[in-house]
Write a structure and sequence with these properties.
single chain, mainly alpha
């Protein structure tokens, strides 16, 4: 495990609301979301995960295997992409296009 350093920061109330929602949606802690945002802002230069080519290749091969399996038999999709998009936009208070 990478050693952590405790930091205290101030953010706007709206940023707090967004941070909480985003963390909940991703199933991550708020601290993890902030760490990932820092890594992304820095271009991933300090993230050891971004440099692990073997892990990326393993994930890619897994996705190819899932794609090759095709849809699940006898389990038709019961949602539409447009409905998901509209729900997401409503969740964040933005009207869908």
């Amino acid at each position: 495990m990478v050693p952590m350093v405790r930091k205290q920061i101030y953010i706007q109330r709206q940023q707090e609301v967004i941070l909480k929602r985003f963390a909940d949606l991703r199933g991550q802690s708020e601290a993890e979301v902030i760490r990932q945002a820092i890594d992304q802002q820095m271009g991933g230069a300090i993230s050891p995960v971004a440099m692990d080519a073997e892990a990326w290749e393993e994930a890619y091969q897994f996705m190819l295997e899932l794609q090759a399996r095709g849809p699940l038999p006898d389990q038709p999709r019961d949602w539409r992409r447009e409905d998901l998009y509209e729900e997401r936009m409503n969740r964040y208070g933005q009207p869908p296009d």
